[in-house]
Design a protein that fits this description.
A hairpin with a 4-residue loop joins strand 5 and strand 6. The chain starts with 13 loop residues before the first helix and ends with a helix. By secondary structure, it is of the alpha+beta class. It has a domain of about 110 residues: Pnp Oxidase, Chain A, CATH 2.30.110. The protein has a seven-stranded antiparallel beta sheet with strand order 2-1-5-6-7-4-3, with helices on both faces. The protein is built from five helices and seven strands.
């Protein structure tokens, strides 16, 4: 169902993909947009327990697209440096294919919103300003979404580019 990476020497392992997803802070979500056009949107996320979580307003283009079709792709790029001498880029990237669902369980929403807050703002101490993000006011005003991976693929630049890059 999902295409294999053509350049086998550049394929990242499952663990390398997981490490990149855990390390990165933002990626680009691809959805089936209006009138058949692809809709891509950069967003912050957290990779938590093997699932990609992010938040959204309760209405808008992203939510309309997800309501129409829950299939999505998500791409992150870790380390990307131009190598002008090779007319290339030294990079490591991961693409995730999966389905998105709106989180309904309140405890799960709080848990993942707290994980997202900690990923973006550091440890959340009770009573801190960041703890407000997981408070009732914020919790009730955002949509928490989960992208459950069905296929994860990672790739890096060629050995020639990486060797020249140093």
């Amino acid at each position: 169902m999902f295409r294999e990476t053509r350049r086998k020497k550049q394929v990242l392992s499952e663990q390398e993909c997981a490490d990149i997803l855990a390390r990165c802070e933002w990626g680009v979500l691809g959805l089936h947009g209006d009138d058949g056009y692809p809709y891509t949107v950069p967003l912050n996320y957290v990779y938590y327990n093997g699932i990609i979580y992010f938040h959204s307003a309760r209405t808008g283009h992203k939510i309309d697209a997800i309501d129409r079709d829950d299939k999505a792709s998500f791409c992150v790029v870790d380390k990307s440096d131009l190598v002008p001498e090779k007319f290339a880029t030294a990079y490591w990237s991961v693409i995730v294919f999966g389905r998105i669902h709106k989180m309904q369980d309140q405890d799960e929403r709080i848990d993942t919103l707290t994980a997202l807050t900690e990923a973006l703002a550091g440890h959340v101490d009770e009573g801190s300003k960041h703890a407000e993000v997981a408070s009732c006011k914020m919790r009730d005003n955002v949509e928490m979404l989960a992208l459950v991976p069905e296929y994860i693929s990672g790739k890096r630049a060629s050995d020639a580019v990486l060797a020249y890059h140093g």
